[in-house]
Amino acid sequence: MRLLKKYHYWFYILLTAFFCWLSWPVVVNFTSKEIQPIASAVSTLSGILFGFVMASISLFASAKDNKLVRNTTMTGYLPKLVNRLHVTMGLLLFVCFTFLLVLFIPDSLTFNWSGKDYRYSALIVIFGVFLMQNSFIQFYLSWKGFKEFSKHM
Which DSSP string corresponds to 6-29? Predict the structure, then answer.
């Protein structure tokens, strides 16, 4: 259990990569008609979650005179939590950008791999799904840490 706690990020990355590998046979057959509503919904959801994370950072900034905020800043816990929130925001923005990008890639744009043609949009969707899963896990872990911290404010 201690080993899992130490390497939990790597565990999540491998788990989401495995899920993406399993979903490739399905995603590879998607056309832009199927991809566009999915990409639009995922980028919207990521943007909303980004807003929640930004609001939590704003709460810390506005409560800088709070005794708990000052003490946890001195112990180093708060900077780590804020850093995790910033990483979460970056991942969520990257998910938004990836799925917005896929909205503009035509079905005619393909590449050849092992004698078979694949759409670039399918490859970017798989990458976006990988990012999305990791950013949602990071969001959950960050939100859990924020929730624990804020209940003492």
Answer: HTHHHHHHHHHHHHHHHHHHHHTT
By the 8 A CB rule, do 139 and 88 touch?
yes
Listed in sequence order, the residues at least 6 apart from 36 whose beta carbon sits closer than 8 Å to its beta carbon are 103
Nearest alpha carbon to residue 140 among 99, 80, 60, 85: 85
Nearby residues of 57 by Cβ (< 8 Å), 6 or more positions away: 82, 85, 86, 89
Looking at 6-10, 109-113, 126-130, 137-141, which range is the least confident one?
6-10
List, in sequence order, the alpha helices (H) in 28-76: 32-62, 67-75
Token pair, residue 11, equals 């565990």
CA distance linking residue 134 with residue 40, whole number of Å: 18
> For 63-119, where are the alpha helices, taking DSSP H only?
67-75, 77-102
pLDDT at 97: 93
Tokens, residue 52: 């929640």
CA 139 – CA 145 distance, rounded (Å): 10
For 35, the token pair is 């991809």
